[in-house]
Amino acid sequence: MKATGFVIHQSQCSSINGKGYDFFVTRAGFVIPGAEPTEPGGRIHVCIEGDFAAFDGSNDPDAQEQLFVAAKLIARLSETLGIASNALFPHQDGCPGARFPWAKLVLSIPDGYH
């Protein structure tokens, strides 16, 4: 069964605790794969380090780089696995946070830009 989209988490979510994601994007912009698939044949879970309940990262260069790395990861997985890059879903109410910058996660593969 083919993956159907991406579930976005923030690391402050109480259900993460070092598991519950397929990829973890650190504040430093590193991508760490999960130990095993979270939802085999379903959605790909991406956890982004931080608390986006009150912070959108707009004035923080490190956060901007982190979100760009997450967007590149999603774009590459979309292209490789044939998933729509805008098939993005929140993990749950309050996760990834009310101020999460959703638009920063969508890249145009042909253009290579937002």
Helix-strand blueprint:
Blueprint: E1 6-10, E2 23-25, E3 31-33, E4 44-48, H1 61-81, E5 88-90
Parallel strand pairs: 1-4, 1-5, 2-4
Antiparallel strand pairs: 2-3
Q: Could you explain the architecture of this structure?
A:
This protein is an alpha/beta fold. Helices cover 18% and strands 17% of the residues. It is built from one helix and five strands; from the N terminus they run ββββαβ. The protein has one helix spanning 61-81; strands at 6-10, 23-25, 31-33, 44-48, 88-90. It has a five-stranded mixed beta sheet with strand order 3-2-4-1-5, covered by helices on one side. A hairpin with a 5-residue loop joins strand 2 and strand 3. The longest helix is centred in the middle third of the chain and has 21 residues, at 61-81. The radius of gyration is 13 Å and the shape is globular. The N and C termini lie far apart (29 Å).
Question: Can you give me a brief rundown of this structure?
Answer:
The chain has 114 residues and is α/β, with parallel strands linked by helices. The chain has 1 helix and 5 strands; from the N terminus they run ββββαβ.
Return the string of H and E elements: EEEEHE
Describe the biggest sheet? Answer: 5 strands, mixed
SS class:
alpha/beta
Strand order of the largest sheet: 3-2-4-1-5
Q: How many beta-strand elements?
A: 5
Distance between the termini: 29 Å
Mean pLDDT: 84
Q: What Rg do the Cα atoms give?
A: 13 Å
Indicate the proportion of strand residues: 15-25%
SS summary, helix count: 1
| Rough outline | globular
- The low-confidence parts are none
In helices, the fraction of residues equals 10-25%
